[in-house]
Write a structure and sequence with these properties.
Distance between the termini: 82 Å
CATH topology of the largest domain: Spore Coat Polysaccharide Biosynthesis Protein SpsA, Chain A
Shape: globular
Number of domains: 2
């Protein structure tokens, strides 16, 4: 009689255990759902805080076709320093995407008398086989409804792989208030222009202020600015990030504008821990969203980024300490390397002493990372120092252009970059591109490039200009912090100067 009761009690205990397991599982699932909803609510509140604007809803600002994943990227990289309105690709219609808009207004500057009170330039990428046929609205400060503007457009250069870079112009003859945003829409009664995506405008200068009591058009000061875009394989390591910044800072570059969403938050946050008196550079980060297929649109996006870079760096007063005199767009794997000079100022003093050349053309040399290291290079030096042969592969290596602001007297000169061009010889300076060389037509899942035997087939030539920068690079304070690994393990309460 006792045995059945024990068996019955054991069964009951198993049921109790099963119920407890079910309750635990339900609790864990409920907790995960709560956590997920909490983060969604927090992201929404942050987006409202970042993009909110009286009189305009967030939906109107983002517009149709806006890449929602970019918002997550912006929030994830919350430590980025963004002092200006970021450029973002937004869909106007199925054929055209706007990037950034810039306001030219005569009210801000004296001694100017343009034909329109306000003029807005918008960088746009569109299909090359479709002509732009739009109308534009200008949104004014503290005004709920927009005012119609006069639309025009200008094609910038030749088409690139079925894409064309445009500048859309929208002007207003009367000063009815301060413009804050612009929108474009097709002339179709089925579409409400109020629902067109709205692009915030950035105020820019329109004319260089002449120096008082002087007819000199330039000053003997070179302040180059570098705008950085992702590599064609859009990943950047900590080493490539630090080496690029430190190397070009050694050449006299203090202004970096980075258009890249692939740089990890940890790299940016750690870099921000270094005091400004140690870095002595200014870095501006902008996210970069691609609305097209990456491999097919890289060149046209490069052109759009360059135009945005020039618009932002064009300064009214060249005597300002923060004014850039030259600008160039590079990817993380490209390095400006003088052959004999020690900095960029010395290069341009020799190649353009009067600062009249609008564009300087620099040849790009391809250095394969899968080549053997140079025997004369120190073992502990970075790869960019140890690779000393550039190769001629079947793929075309496009040149890099450095634009000279000191040759520009008005904002319109940006639209005429080819008015005067100087070719800088490789004996003076070249752009070294460091990448893994592989057959672009033969996909390899492993990602490996040409082997040693295959590399010997291609023409290659020795170029040891980088070797002389090896000691200065590895002894740089910021590079030493990176190599030591301490900066990546630093806590907020530690002084970074003690690590030097």
């Amino acid at each position: 009689m006792k045995t059945p009761r024990k068996s019955s009690g054991g069964i009951m205990r198993k049921y109790y255990q099963l119920i407890l397991v079910i309750v635990c599982c339900v609790s864990v699932v409920t907790l995960l759902i709560y956590r997920h909803e909490y983060y969604r609510l927090r992201y929404v509140l942050e987006v409202l805080n970042i993009f909110g604007k009286p009189g305009l809803s967030e939906i109107e600002f983002c517009g149709p076709g806006f890449n929602a994943t970019l918002l997550t990227e912006i929030l994830r990289n919350s430590s980025m320093e963004v002092r200006e309105k970021p450029p973002l690709f937004q869909q106007i219609d199925e054929n055209f995407y706007s990037y950034s808009s810039f306001l030219r207004s005569h009210q801000k500057y004296e001694n100017l008398s343009p034909s329109e009170a306000h003029h807005i330039d918008t960088i746009v990428i569109g299909k090359a086989n479709v002509l732009p046929q739009f109308r534009c609205n200008i949104w004014l400060e503290n005004v709920r409804k927009p005012k119609p503007g006069k639309f025009a457009y200008k094609a910038m250069g030749e088409a690139t792989k079925d894409y064309q870079l445009y500048v859309f112009h929208c002007s207003m003859p009367k000063n009815l208030g301060k413009p804050e945003a612009i929108s474009f829409y097709i002339n179709d009664y089925h579409i409400n222009p109020i629902h067109a995506p709205i692009i915030r405008v950035i105020e820019v200068v329109t004319k260089v202020k002449p120096r008082l009591n002087s007819n000199i058009r330039f000053i003997n000061n070179i302040e180059p600015a570098i705008c950085v875009i992702p590599n064609q394989v859009p990943l950047v390591s900590k080493a490539a990030f630090i080496e690029f910044l430190v190397f070009h800072h050694m050449l006299g570059v203090h202004h970096f504008t980075i258009y890249d969403s692939t740089v990890s938050e940890d790299i940016i946050r750690r870099l921000n821990l270094i005091p400004p008196d140690i870095t002595q550079w200014e870095i501006q980060f902008f996210p970069l969203n691609y609305p097209f297929i990456f491999s097919k649109s890289y060149e046209i996006v490069h052109k759009a980024v360059e135009l945005d870079c020039l618009f932002r760096h064009f300064k009214m007063d060249r005597e300002e300490n923060s004014a850039a005199s030259h600008a160039v767009v590079l990817s993380w794997d490209e390095f400006l390397v003088p052959r004999f000079h020690s900095n960029l100022k010395a290069v341009f003093d020799d190649s353009d002493p009067t600062r009249k050349v609008r564009s300087s053309k620099i040849k790009s040399l391809l250095f394969c990372l899968n080549q053997n290291d140079d025997d004369n290079a120190e073992v502990g030096y970075p790869e960019i120092i140890r690779k000393t042969h550039y190769f001629k592969l079947p793929e075309e290596n496009k040149p890099i252009y450095v634009r000279n602001f000191d040759s520009m007297t008005s904002f319109d000169d940006i639209f005429n970059l080819e008015s005067s061009t100087n070719v800088i010889s490789v004996d003076i300076m070249a752009v070294h591109k460091y990448t893994e060389c592989r057959d672009g037509k033969n996909f390899q899942a492993s990602g490996s490039g040409y082997n040693e035997t295959q590399m010997q087939v291609f023409q290659h030539k020795f170029e040891g200009a980088m070797l002389k920068y090896g000691p200065s690079l590895v002894n740089n304070k910021i590079y030493r912090l990176y190599k030591s690994g301490q900066i990546w393990e630093k806590h907020d309460n530690e002084d970074i100067r003690e690590m030097l």
